[in-house]
Amino acid sequence: MKEEIIIAGFGGQGVLSMGKILAYAGLMDGLEVTWMPAYGPEQRGGTANVTVIMSDAPISSPVLNTYDTAVILNQQSLDKFESKVKPGGTLIYDPYSIHHAPTRTDIKVVPVDAMEATFELPSSKAYNMVLLGALLKVRNLVPVEAVMKGLKKTLPERHHHLLPVNKEAIMKGMSLPKTEA
Amino acid sequence: MEDEVRLMKGNEAVAHAAIRYGVDGYFGYPITPQSEILETLEELMPWETTGMVVLQAESEIAAINMVYGGAATGKACMTSSSSPGISLKQEGISYIAAGKLPALIINCMRGGPGLGTIQPSQADYFQATKGGGHGDYHLIVLAPASVQEMADFVGLGFDLAFKYRTPVMMLADGIVGQMMEKVVLPPQRPRRTDEEIALQCPWAVTGRPASRKPNIMTTLELDPVAMERNNIRLQETYRLIEANETRCEEHCTEDCEYLIVAFGSVARICQKAMEEAREEGIKVGILRPITLWPFPSEEIKRLSKKVKAILVVELNAGQMIEDVRLSLEDRVPVHHYGRMGGIVMDPSDVLGALKNIIEE
Amino acid sequence: MTPEEIKQAANIVECKPRLLNDNTMHYCPGCSHGVVHKLVAEVIEEMGAEHIAIAIAPVGCAVMAYNYIDIDWIEAAHGRAPAIATAAKRLNPSRLVFTYQGDGDLAAIGTAETIHAANRGENIAIIFINNGIYGMTGGQMAPTTLEGQVTSTTPYGRRVELNGYPLRITDILAGLDGTCYVTRQSVHTAPAVRKAKKAIRKAFENSMTGLGTSVVEIVSTCSSGWKLSPAKANVWMVEHMFEKYPIGDLKDTTVSKA
User: Fold this and answer.
1) pLDDT (tens digit per residue) in B23-54
2) Minimal-distance CA residue of chain A relative to B2
3) How do strand B291-293 and strand B258-261 relate by DSSP bridges?
């Protein structure tokens, strides 16, 4: 098993932490993982993206030019990464921030109304967890239990009371994809 | 044991490894992309546990001189920075080398020259491997390619620094510093006691007991004959290090017709390119120098005898390639592919460069 | 009487401290360094502190101070002594750590290290020799050179519009919360020498009691740099230097803190 994933959006949307939780979940599930952010000023409001690789074998390059799966949160990121999804790969995007929908037909395109769904949740901060849930539903990378373990590892103990809220967001996200994997 | 496997950034791993190795002092100054080292140490508060001193200095210059001062007292001291900050430290590094003091300096390279960019680069290869500051000296230069190596090279770096009484540089870059992957941290070791330091470092400036003459840590020697002797002694140490401590790693070199030489994170990018090339039937192997100084010249020379060409891949305009060429005495064509200024090549770029050579 | 006859134990009323060795000093006749070296050696000897003393030498005339006082020394890069002392003290809290610096070292190239070490309240003592000139390199302008003072780089006298004003860095250090004891002394008369010795002793003791940074400025002469005889240099110092750099304590919080 090997999955090369790019998650891209605006800084502040939780792109990097979504990648981190996914990577930690992979670790909990016994996989090799790398998490490579585009670091720097992007973190403070510009575009942000992170490459996460999960594999059952040692990982060579943490830097990639093509991806199995892209999770896209804004138009700039769609423009940048749509062409970089491998043929037969998956592109998950939130139509909320997208004006020109993806056009490729050789990949599986999955719109997920994550922002709309987040409005129904108690915290808007759970947006990235909704998307993570959708990704897990579509790609079935790791079990939800591994994600919860990963969350527990990445969240400081004082925030552990937020674990149920996050789980609710993930479950919500899992219910969203209209195209089944 | 499960607890020991962690997911963290290379920079964070350095901080954890330093505490666990029993480092006595870390002195640093913030600069992207390595500030997590200082931040993580401050968060972990090792002064409460091992007694390690952690201090944010007023400048890189002050930080390296704190390392010099601490090392002169026999303590295991380290600093970290990124390219522009490492330039500021060069004066102090020269003094530490001249004083034959053990110390660990980490450069998490970013693109230059000047203030440059905060994105990854390998453009400080010359600076790191040829000395960097004034005078004839070398650092042992370790190039980590993974978060695990960033953790491991803290311990290896200090072991070598104390064994040879020389400063060691870990030449990392923004990729290995910023990326997260799994890491197994070393077990916690106690810091050395003052008695152990006195035994290990009889030269240490600790206050003079009645039983010995003053210990004087100076790099000044106005008598040129004596100064030449000091230089000769340094060079003897370097020859010993060259003979004993050259390290490198090979991938798929048994049957290779083409050889890629790359260090640090770029070696991993090349590894993926190699995997793709081999799927296309191109027999390519990789040699990754782990020590950039001393440089694995003999290994490259040996492999050069069976390859048609060598491709050196670096995040610079061509620096390590000079050492590769020096190793080969012009027997094999040596080509370069590089990106600069914080741009990182991807595996397809490397594959393209390799194909260009094959077509030539 | 021959010199050997005079050197009878019975005749000795004053002797050089044991820690001051017999090496011939490279200092010029009339230079204040020799006197201050003797005071440092005496104080360490009287405190019984040679086994815990770590001294940091500067770049400048005192660069080879380690050749004269038989304790452990670290020779610093120019201006960096306070950074080196910072680490030496923090990593060895039981040690008596002090720097010995000149005006160029402390107040020009090492201003940042000096101010930040003092501002952190490092438990170190700083002995600051202020003779208003760069002695070692041949008499160039120092940050503390007086207005109008002739040096090799101000051959027509220091002009404030070009070179700025003489820097009273000790006053700045006294204003920092990290310093506990800041004083300005001199060694041109026997009473002055006695006072300077007391100040050095107090600064060294402060390093051990952890009250913060101590600074002892010694307004000094440089007869070679000033191109005056030793006796005239002392007069010139009193007449000119003391006006800009008045002798006395600038700060002492050790009584209230202790």
Assistant:
1) 999 999 999 999 999 999 999 999 999 999 99
2) A28
3) unpaired
